[in-house]
Amino acid sequence: MVIQTLNIVSFRNFESISMSFGHETNVFFGDNGSGKTNLLEAIFVLLLGRSPRGAQDAIMVRDGDDVYRIGGNLLIDDSKRELAIAYQRGGRKKITEDNATIRISELYKHNSVVSTAPEDSQILSGPPSKRREFVNVYLAQASVKYLSDMSDYTRVLAQKNAFLKNDPRGECPFDELLVHHGVQIMKARSDFLDTIASSAQEYYTRISGGQDFAVRYCPSVPVEEDGIDWQGVERRFHEKLEQYRSREIMVGRSFVGPHRDEVDIFIRNLPARSHGSQGELRTAAIALKLAVFDYLKKIRRTAPILLLDEIFAELDPKRQEMLIDAFGGFGQLFLTTASHVPSALSVGSHNFRIKNGKVFQE
Question: What are the structural domains of the chain?
């Protein structure tokens, strides 16, 4: 999968730019605040219809404008496709492929992208929602069914919360569907995290020079540590819903289900959230993203687009060297830096200087 061209109008600090990329390494460099990160965000939005930072569309429209548009030509398995995404303030987002309107789910079905940035440390140090979002964004790229289950679960959860806020009496009519979709989501998350855990550990150990690293799924519904009986999980799901029923009615929202899941991450056998240094958190976040890259590459049988935003920030020279050595087997990647590009990455790369919302190829 390769992005050949990118066209941006009124997105973030860019008024209007057009770019053509190389099939391997593309480097965006310039001062902080010049717009390097915004370019990576635009690529992510083009491929998946959402910001990797979770930003709302209205925020991404350039100040003083009402509409942003991102377009690009992609090459997938020797087949060319033209994608475009447009959003108008107060309106809806329109996504087209070869000039035909498509749903956002079609982007997840056909495209694959992995993004890493300094704020990814929040995956480890932030609230559980950050870890759930990490799982959702990348698992949805591997499984259309997971994306569908998440959509169904979110809808049912909203219906249940509305029911709870309206002086409910008797059995909740939405619990059965909540359990059905919830168990499917839990199973997919369990398999996903089990798969990437060993790869993430290998990457972390390689980059850090030998430290221990571990990932563990902690669903809100108890499961067995040795072999999960999913029929038993369904039963315990119902039991926990019953246990929390009075509390949910009192507060007016649901407390049981995948929307309350946690992912525990350990560095040096200690909780990363409370004991990890900034460098360790940054290294761990990169290790997780590289593990996801390997996972998606295997599942989809093609290398995802890789977006590396200031990947060397907060890493000492030794970890930077170890990280570069870990690169291999990647397809097209985009890299931002405020300083010099390591020579190991700059050979044969396409370099772009970003300055005041303008792009200059060098």
Answer: 1-112+302-362 (3.40.50.300), 122-300 (1.20.1050.90)
